[in-house]
Amino acid sequence: MLLRNAWYVAAWSSEIPVDELLARTILNVPVALWRESSGKVVAFEDRCCHRGAPLSKGRLEGDQLRCMYHGLLFDTTGRCVEIPGQERIPPQAKVRTFPVVEKHKWIWIWVGDASLADPSQIPDTHWLDDPEWRSLEGYTYYTTNYLLIADNLLDLAHLPYVHPNTLGGDEAYAACIPQVEKLENGVRVTRWGEGIKPAPFVQKIKNYPGAVDRWNIYDFVLPSIFLMDSGMQPSGHNAKAGNRVNAAEFRSTQALTPETDESTHYFFSQPHNFAIDDPEVTLAIHNQVVTAFQEDSDMIHAQDRMLKLTSDFKMIPIGADAALSYFRWLVANAYKAEQAISNPVKIQEV
Amino acid sequence: MLLRNAWYVAAWSSEIPVDELLARTILNVPVALWRESSGKVVAFEDRCCHRGAPLSKGRLEGDQLRCMYHGLLFDTTGRCVEIPGQERIPPQAKVRTFPVVEKHKWIWIWVGDASLADPSQIPDTHWLDDPEWRSLEGYTYYTTNYLLIADNLLDLAHLPYVHPNTLGGDEAYAACIPQVEKLENGVRVTRWGEGIKPAPFVQKIKNYPGAVDRWNIYDFVLPSIFLMDSGMQPSGHNAKAGNRVNAAEFRSTQALTPETDESTHYFFSQPHNFAIDDPEVTLAIHNQVVTAFQEDSDMIHAQDRMLKLTSDFKMIPIGADAALSYFRWLVANAYKAEQAISNPVKIQEV
Amino acid sequence: MLLRNAWYVAAWSSEIPVDELLARTILNVPVALWRESSGKVVAFEDRCCHRGAPLSKGRLEGDQLRCMYHGLLFDTTGRCVEIPGQERIPPQAKVRTFPVVEKHKWIWIWVGDASLADPSQIPDTHWLDDPEWRSLEGYTYYTTNYLLIADNLLDLAHLPYVHPNTLGGDEAYAACIPQVEKLENGVRVTRWGEGIKPAPFVQKIKNYPGAVDRWNIYDFVLPSIFLMDSGMQPSGHNAKAGNRVNAAEFRSTQALTPETDESTHYFFSQPHNFAIDDPEVTLAIHNQVVTAFQEDSDMIHAQDRMLKLTSDFKMIPIGADAALSYFRWLVANAYKAEQAISNPVKIQEV
Fold first, then answer.
1. Chain B residues closer than 8 Å to C30 by CB
2. Does the pTM exceed 0.90?
3. Cα distance between residue B160 and residue B165, in whole Å
4. Which residues form a coiled coil (chains A, B, C) (predicted)?
């Protein structure tokens, strides 16, 4: 159930230096990413139109890319402009290209119907390069469907259990009931914990003397983008009313991009707006998140193995599933709508 | 063709210490095994009823087990007794449990219809902890269906060919025709070799000066349990009549437990009743058996690869197949009977 | 689309020393190869007719082969001549054997209908042991269908792009248009480049001072044998008219043998007729070819992965595909003819 008509993160900007080719499969489509001499990113289907050889093993010649199997040369629009030993270039000798937008260090790609690609739909992730925030670039890879990872992000009751020594901490936080709001293209979750123990990854830096108030307020939007205002601060300053005092604030920015039906690229970053001149703090936060994401990965891959053993397992829903259930419903609806467009129902003639 | 309504060995007792969880898949069912504070072994389906996360990665809290994904807590009956952030526990929030019996160092499990589980059907394996016998605990793992291993055990003509330097020895023993008796739930095989060379694994310990009489007398019973009286002694003392003199006697005890259709847990032990105060003898016997079982494993995995290459290969039966043919017939019959119960034929209404 | 009624190379002669067994799967059939005491090579289906155990793990006893699972003994015709513990040998106790011809260091096998096996159809590869030529024995292994490798060999426009530092060199050579002649059982390709830079693997040995004329003239015949006259020499001596002066000449001899539908044995050699008394030259040429074949392997395996990602990719033909298109058409026709013979159409009775 992969949604094709949507913007996905294909790469970090830094993964595509000038004069290099990046091979990455997205929604089962192999893609070769590279930069024109102007710096603009180009995305080709990573199969030469001749025999399917990977263009990511090709040679960049200025603003042209040569397949290094039989030497066909392509311009930035994907049009073949040279075939060794042949004068006439058949007009169908073209490789498919995909709309690409580079914004705030992320390369966004649209592999569905290009006529529907509207860059204004790309969510705001300005924290990734905002001078008031600091973060490092994270990437991990799953051999599971992306929805199992979305489930994880849509129920943060898992924090104290999966991440006792990093993002988690006080098990009381799992029992705090979040507010779930339905958005047109996603879901907004607001979880507050008041007077609880701080999370270990923050406590290592802030060393708060007593209890804190903690919040995780995030939108999870289609196709699978996670944007969160989170943090904690000493209790007693009315954080819930917006009064942030000595807070450790974050803008966790995460994107899931299906590689195939059963594998997923996972881009993430944890911008913070305190101690922004101390790279060691930035690194320490990043490393704690990397450790925590490995904890999630262990659990989700294990869950995936359990679910795949037999097809008869039935999940029992609980109250904490509200956000994930709604999101899965949104995905199913969007998928049905896409299928209806690509396979329109024939009107029965009378 | 896996029989579900049967007792299988799930583990050695020593694999489930107090306060630890053992994950093991049995007949395609993932199982988490652990001990109540009383020492009684509990077997849960290794999937939390909520989202299928493995409970074997959970946390034991006295006589309760907590899923470490979202914190659901279960009592020893599998009933959910706590859901973080939720007052009411839905009655269907239960994980499946399985009948378990611990006996003579083996943990037996029944993953089929629990109402049919009768502990009196568990075969006698008292040699595993009888003070008159000594042995070590063996385990190996196959990536083949269990029946190929059963075939191997049901025709010991393979001993001199597969195990020339361990269990085998004199090729004359392969030509000794065994007596095969049909049992209701298995088959009894009796093989005698008289005046032959001793098997290397015994000769290393006993150093017999001349020819021996050798016997392998075993029951192989459903679903796949192998219980053998075997040994050898100097010829000329009428061993066949029960007169055991200076004998090396064993009670090989083996159990095959399908993990999946194409993988098998293999529990084994080789109790001996001589030199029982010499741990080096016990270790030497065990090590020889381990080496020999690796020889079987190499052959059976190779055979499996050959059989899987194409589906058109036809086996030519020979006389030595009597026991294995009968056993496979028993399995097929038992399987048919199980299917008939779980999928009863609808009586056609007239 | 594997052709069964054809001679394939099964092995280099040196792979089957006396008293050793070679296991090799050919067209999905596991084969055990060995030599009678006379030196004649015998090919058995590598499955004992009893239970399918691999005979390649058996024991040679003079001109007989014993299965080392249960001890059945077979003569060179595949007939079982001994079953331990059994007097009468059933007449159907036979393992299948295959026609084999050893010629010029190659062992040819026929796994299809033996009545059609005509050794006179084996192509001439005498350069492999002709005293006027020198070469070493090459083998590599692909996890792709053999036809992707055939495609590669049928369009040498790839030489400068895939092999810039070995077999390739001047990109002008890719633009030289080859002559393609249809043969009854294959295709003949003639490519000439005049006044071009020499290929690096030759230049390392010959160190030509200026431009060369280069040729690749080869037959690629069913099922998948590649026989080439290739070389280069200083320009200006009318090489095209057959006037070879200071030439580096080769008779590249290659054979693709499908192991399964998706894996291929690749036997190759690069005989040369200059500096034949200098083993270092022979080794240097061989090593350059080995390096180049690894370059092909990298490209073809990458192409295979791209093609397998989705089934909707459509190749755009170009002029350089003439030879490979014709060869694929020949294969498809031969395959259809084989199918028609093994599944004859029933004539409808009136």
1. 306, 309
2. yes
3. 8
4. none
